[in-house]
Write a structure and sequence with these properties.
By secondary structure, this protein is an alpha+beta fold. About 30% of the residues lie in helices and about 30% in strands. About 0% of the residues are buried.
Length: about 130
């Protein structure tokens, strides 16, 4: 998508004020209680699309493969509820150091075939 909203246009649509009012009425909550649906930056949109495109590629590959199945797909908001904690061991000037790191991948998915299952973690890097 175009970063300035011109040209190819915006492909990530969100609710405007009227739509938010309708959703709030339907859910019987205050508009203020709804989470903000506007992405913070265009980079969020590009990242979101990239993760979605990857998932579609995995789904298509599994459909074309004999006896392959995408069993689970867990996205980042769900993974944030139970982040992984790992210990990073490293060396500084010959001194062994350790630190705890919180990891939250963009997705976790499991592919199965026959009696075999493998779980993967996805980190979609959008570095410029």
């Amino acid at each position: 998508p175009s970063l300035n909203g011109m040209g190819s246009g915006k492909r990530f649509l969100t609710l405007g004020p009227t739509g938010r009012q309708l959703i709030a009425q339907r859910l019987r909550v205050r508009v203020h209680d709804l989470k903000d649906s506007n992405p913070a930056t265009p980079w969020f949109v590009l990242h979101h699309e990239a993760v979605g495109n990857f998932r579609i590629s995995v789904e298509v590959a599994c459909q074309q493969g004999e006896d392959l199945a995408l069993r689970t797909w867990v996205d980042e908001p769900q993974l944030r509820q139970t982040p992984m904690q790992v210990t990073d061991n490293f060396d500084i000037n010959g001194k062994d150091m350790r630190r705890r790191i919180t990891l939250i991948p963009d997705a976790e998915f499991t592919i199965a075939t026959g009696g075999w299952r493998q779980t993967f973690l996805l980190e979609m890097d959008r570095a410029r």
